Amino acid sequence: MKFATGLFLALSFAFALPSQNSTTQPAKRLEELQNKTILVFTPHPDDDVFGAGGTIALLNHNHNKVYVVVYTNDDKGSYDPEMNSQRLAQIRRSEQEVSEGMLGTSKENILWMGYDDGMLEYAAQPKLTEEATAIIRRIRPDVLLSVDPGEWFERWHKSDHRMAAFNTIDAVRAAEFWLYFPNQKLQQGLQPYKVPEMYFFYPSPQEANYFVNIDSVIDLKVDAALKQVSQFEPAVNKYRPDWDLNDLAKAKEELRGGQPRKEGHFVEAFRYATGFNQY
Ligand SMILES: [Zn+2]
Question: How many whole angstroms from 50 Cα to the centroid of ligand 1?
Answer without folding.
Answer: 9
